[in-house]
Structure formats: structure tokens, C-alpha cells
């Protein structure tokens, strides 16, 4: 544990984070090859700060850093690193030292770290360097689907029978039995090792020695099945303000526990994932190599190119109209752009509300109704604004009326698409954050250009 | 505590949430005025599930629900509700019952709930109904800036001196002294009530009675100042996997504690806020009235209209070019749209990385360099694709070359703007999520149209 957080290393008081000057000092020590100074600089840092520090260094410095600190490398740094950076660090550590790190971290972190190795051969090589029992635990967990409760859980936990007294329990905890480093709850199990309740540590500490656990336990509440999706796990923790929860296998036996610190990471990642997917990003790529970044981002851009060409085809239908009234070409992006933005607002609200389970089959129709009314009102407001601007600009009342009408139509289409697309994808069990943006802009571009140029072709020419 | 979570009320096993049929049953009971059946239905629910249930009902049913359950209304439901829904519920409860609720919840929740009342007179009326001591605590907290640690903290905590033994501490906890319902840590304070360390409950339980606390305590680690922004608090909790942390006032005295369950909500909200701001939403408005929703969303749409008109002005400069080659009007949205999308990808990565403190002054230049290269490569790739499509479509090599060149220019501009705008806003202490989207689309629209039509005017005409 660090003993000087508010030191010169980290910004103090109202902001927390590594100071650029500190990163500069580390860089200096690495350049100079001064390992002693380096270790002195790093020593007071929390492992999560060391992870941040490594991310802040450039590729070359990272390798130097790992080489210099290898002998004292804190294994807990690894789970905190960005994926791309971690790969670099592990490569530099080598399989031998990486396996040593795995033995130091908690079982859920070990599962996560091994799970991140994509190459099967490399994975087998690392597993081969681990003790048989640990290897079995990791392999078992990795056989479960990704992003499920079984991947998040720790196997170490405290479970005792309900007929024990507070005194017996405290004596057991003091006995030095094989216990996890930290625990927040004591799970109460029946003779078949199925959870029947839990005792909060504060309740245990408050009760006198002769009290039986079944008098102070919360009766069995929230059980997590080993295959439950991590998003559901996070929802449960948030919903019920849990600190830790028992994980059971298919037969209902207690096999592990999930703690809130892991769930905090999941909550953060799930929100981040939705945010990224809405922007057409498949993964966090801040520290990824250029080639990987280009590859990851191009999928969405290719899709978007398709949408853009489709919109151009619609425009192409009205070539002669554009030729006749060039003002239409000047104004047409306004209608499409406003529809796209209004639709994105609705879409974002809907995607988020589906993720937080606030938008449900029970209230979906009401929300669709509301968004339609909002779209209509917005459409009318911006029809008047845009119509007036266009009339003043080109001195042509017909153009003003046509752009106004097109605006109402496109804003309405945007609202409907913004709410209907994520609802439909969700019902089809597709993640509404991933693909709804493409569908939405397709709708708002096509409807926007078609309505504006189509109305113009009919009423102006 | 609910004793049948996996009942017919909630979806079981792999998904968790209210079943539409259950909401239907509640609606039925409300329609029929069958309070007995209603209470029976609601009784097994967790308070957070009751909040979800209320959100799922329509306005009329909500009022009926509150009226019917008033006498047994669970105060803990209130903090879980969406802001707009909570206002309805409080209005239905009336000040008297609302004040009664406030007395039941924890002090941080009471502060939050009173803080949500925007009308000064109403707030004073509610405060007037509270006991003097509680009123003082709430008023003191509300005098602090919004979104700061002092608003999140609970005043109830366990603090003891370091010379106490484990036995003395346990006896104190068992004595029935005024203690919080639940606590995760014991804070160790010096004679001037300044925190000097903390003891985890698991460590306390594991140690024998004669052991002194200063032998098992973690020396003073993370202190939170009362004015620290909640975003910083959340970062610290996440970074250091904290369960609870001491809050100190300006003179360093321990005045409260923040617990992880409140921080989980903050983490979720901060990520949601960034996601919403990027989409031009000022607040979560799923359950807001139509009028409020229209108002809240129109700010961004008006700004966007400005941007769109600016883009149109750029197009207007090239009216004669468009008149001469109408194919340009057909193709021009492609360049702008691709730039906007590529820029949004970069922007989203940058905004998120600033929020998670992974993008810092120490590595900013390296990331800018990387994004520039990514933008350039993407530009070249899509220049070839778009150029080829345009050439085939219009059979004009010059158009293909011009659109390709414009694509490279705009993708490069998009990358630079996508990373530079949030960095600049962050340095100016403006939230980069709020306003960067407008700036970005302004850049990509203006550069996109100007480059494409400008090059065409020079090389094709």
C-alpha cells in the first residue's frame, strides 16, 4: 500500500493523476539506465498508478521499464493495463515471469489474463508453467462463455453452516484456515453446499459470541448462476447495492463469489462499450498499433460509405431537378443533417434505456408515442426556422415551403427510426448499440434527400 | 430483503428484470382498486425493483400506485427513481409523507433528495418538517458545490483510536453504540479526529483480541477532501478498488465516509453523461414530459442548424461550379459524411480517454501523431474506393481524382480535429464531451465541401 499519495508524484487535493513532470523523471531514469532511481520513483505508487505510468510511456520506454523492474514486478499491475499495452509488457516479461505473475494474482484475475492470450499455442505454453490445480481452475473457467459470471468469480471464499455461533465463526476466521485475503461477507451453506443466506461482517461484529448465524443472516437473496452474462451481473449489483454475491453451478452448489470491485470495472466497460459502438468503434484502441486501429475502424467506415453512396443514388435520381434549381443543391445537406442529429438523440436515449432496463416491452409503446410527438414538434419548429432562412437567402417562397415540409417529414422519420430500430434489434437479440447508427443515418439521409428533392421536383419545377 | 427473487415476478436465471405480465397484473390491480392484491404483488420486491415498476407504469397508474401504497411506502425507492418520475411521486406523496421518507433514508440519500427540489420555497417547506439536527446536516451539505464528495458522503461511520485492541473494538461494536446500519471498514483517528489509517473488517475478524489496531491497520491511504469532484472520487475508487473511504474537511478532520455503492452510481452516471453529451443530449429525458424533452434537445439542434447553414454557405460559393457539373452535387455528401464519421471515431476515443485519464499531457503528442497517421491511411484507402466508384458511375476520371483528393484532405482534417478539439477544450477546462461534436462536424462539413467543390472548380471547369 502506498504511503504518500499526496506527494509530488500525483496531483493532490482536487485532481488525481500522474504529473507529466513525474513521467518525465521516469523517462529520464530509463534513458540514463539508472535502475536505482527508477525503483525509488516507482516504489510509493499504487499498482493502478504503475499501470497508468506504463501506458504513459512510449513503446521503447515501456520495454526498458519492464526489463529494469522485472525482478520486483508487481503482478497486480497486469489486469489494470490496456489490452494492447499489456501484450507488449507480457512479451517483454517472457512466459516464465508472466506465469510467476499469474501465481500471485487472485484467481479471477488469472483467468482474465490467460483468457486474453489469443494464440492457442502461447496459451498452452503459459498454462504448462502453472501448478496443476491452478491450471485446472483456469481451464475450467475458460471453457465457459466469455463475459459470463464464471469468468468474473473468485473461487476463494468463506462459507460456513448456519448452526455455527458467532463465536465459532470468529474462532474459525482466527484459526488461520485457508481464507481469501479479503472478504466482505460470510456465505451460509447447507450440508450440500448450497447457499442459504449470508452474514454481513458488520452484523457478525456486532453480535455476541453465543448468537447463532441463522439469527443474524440475511436469508438467501441474490444468487448468480455461473453462466449469467456479466451485464446481468452488473445490473444486479447496481440494482441491489451488493458488495459480493455467491455464484452457483447448475446444481445450485456454491462455487465462487463475485465482488463489487470487479463489477465496477464491468459497469464502466459496458457503458464505454455502448458509447464506442454508437460511434462505430469496435474496441478501445487508444494504445493499439496504427495498423490494428485502421483495421478496426474501417469496418464501420466501409458501411458508412455504403450508406453515403445510397444517399447519393437518391440524389442522382433528381439530377435534372438540381440542374434546374441549383439552390436545392446548396440547401439539401441541411435536411439530412438535422434528421441525422435529431435521430441520434432519440437513438442514444433508447440504447441507454435498453441497457439500464428502463425501456421495456411494458412501456415501449408509450415511449414510441412520446418520441413521435417530440419529433413532430421539433420538425415544425425547425421547418419554420429553416424555411424562413431559405426564403430570405434565395428570395423564393416555394423553396422555403418545400424545405419546411421536408424537414417535418425527416424529423418524424428520424424520431420513429431512432426509437424503432433499437427496439427491433433488441427483440432480435442483437446489441442495439452496434448497428443501429448505420440504419438510422441510412433512413435520415434517404428520407431527407428524397423528401426535399422529390417535393421540389413536384412543386417547383 | 426479498425472499423470492427467482419467482414469477422477475425473469429468472440468465436475465433479470420485471416481466411485462407482472407489470400487467399490477396495472390490473390498480384499475380494479384492489389494494390488497397490489400490496401482495409488491411485497416481495426489492426497493430498486419497485422503482423500476413505478417507471414502467403510465402517469395515471403511478399516481394510483403511490396513493394506494402511501402508508407502507418504502423510502429507499425514491433515490432509485428517474428524476422526472420522482417529481411525480413526491407530488403525489405530499410534503408531509416526503419528509417522513427523508427521515428513513441514509443521510447521503436525504441530501440528494432535498437537493433535487429546485423550487426554493418548496425546499424550505420540506426542510421545515425535519428535525433540527437533520435539517442542519442537509443544509450544510447543500451549501457545498453540486457533484462534490460532501454531497455523496454519509456522516454515520465507525472511528476509533489506534491504541485500542481488537477485543476493545469488538466490545464497542457489540455495545449497541450509535453505529451505521452497515460499515465496511473501521477508520482509525488521532486525538484530533484526523484519519491515520483504516482496518478492514476481514482483518479485524482474523486477529486475536489482544492485538492492537495499529498492528493490523493499513496506514492512512486515500483521503477524500469534502470539495473533491465526484468524478475524481469515482476515479479513485475504481483505481484503488476501494470499498469505502474517509472524507475530511479543510482542516483534515474526519467528517464522513463515501461507500462504493454510491460510487457505482456515479461511475455509471459519468459514463452515461459523456455518452449523452456526445449525442447532443443535455440530460436523461426518457421519462420527461414532451415539452421538457423538446426544450432540452433543441439547444443542440439549433447549434447544428447553424453548422449546417455554414456548410451550405460554403456550397453556395460554388453555385456556378455545381450548375456546370451536376454530378458534383450528387457526390458531395459522401466526402462530408465520411469525414464526419471518421472524426467522430477519433473524438469518442479521445473524450473517453480524457475521462479515464489515459490521455494525458505526457502522451498527448504521441496520440495526436498516431491519429494523424490513421487519418492519412484511412484517407488514402477511401480515396481509392470512392474515386473508383465515382469514376465508374460518371465515367469521368477527373471527378474520380478530385473526390479522392478531397477525401484524403477531409479524413486528415477529421483526424486532427477529432483529437485536437477535445484536448484543447480539456485544457480550457471545458468538458470535452459537451461541445466537441459541433466543432468537429463544422470542420468536417466545411473542409469536405470546400475541398471537393474547390478542387473541382480549379481542375474540372
UniProtKB/TrEMBL annotation, chains A, B:
GO (cellular component) term, any one: plasma membrane
One Pfam family matching this protein: MgtE
Keyword set includes Transmembrane: yes
Residue ranges constituting the CBS domain according to the UniProt record: 217-275
Membrane association type: Multi-pass membrane protein
UniProt-listed InterPro entries: CBS_dom (IPR000644), CBS_dom_sf (IPR046342), Mg_transptr_MgtE_intracell_dom (IPR006668), MgtE_N_sf (IPR038076), MgtE_transporter (IPR006669), SLC41_membr_dom (IPR006667), SLC41_membr_dom_sf (IPR036739)
Membrane-spanning segments: 300-318, 324-351, 372-393, 399-425, 437-460
Subcellular location: Cell membrane; Membrane
Keyword Transmembrane helix set for record: yes
UniProt keyword list: CBS domain, Cell membrane, Magnesium, Membrane, Metal-binding, Transmembrane, Transmembrane helix, Transport
Gene3D superfamilies, per the entry: CBS-domain, MgtE N-terminal domain-like, SLC41 divalent cation transporters, integral membrane domain
SUPFAM superfamilies: CBS-domain pair (SSF54631), MgtE membrane domain-like (SSF161093), MgtE N-terminal domain-like (SSF158791)
One GO MF term attached to the UniProt entry: metal ion binding
Chief localization: membrane
Complex and partners: Homodimer.
Similarity remark: Belongs to the SLC41A transporter family.
Function: Acts as a magnesium transporter.
Name of the featured protein: Magnesium transporter MgtE
Organism expressing this protein natively: Roseospira navarrensis
Encoding gene per record: mgtE
